[in-house]
Amino acid sequence: MEEQQYNLLNGLPLEFDHVVSIISTSIVPFNLQGVKTALLDAEARQQGYLS
Prior knowledge:
Elements: H1 3-10, H2 17-25, H3 32-50
């Protein structure tokens, strides 16, 4: 995992722990765009649940 991705993931609140776990343990590495997409998808789902 690249340093930029590592720093991004470590700065996230606990609500994103499931996404961080998936990205961190994935056999296929995520590029930075993949990390951003996964986080935005997770955020959209969380917002949908809160509405």
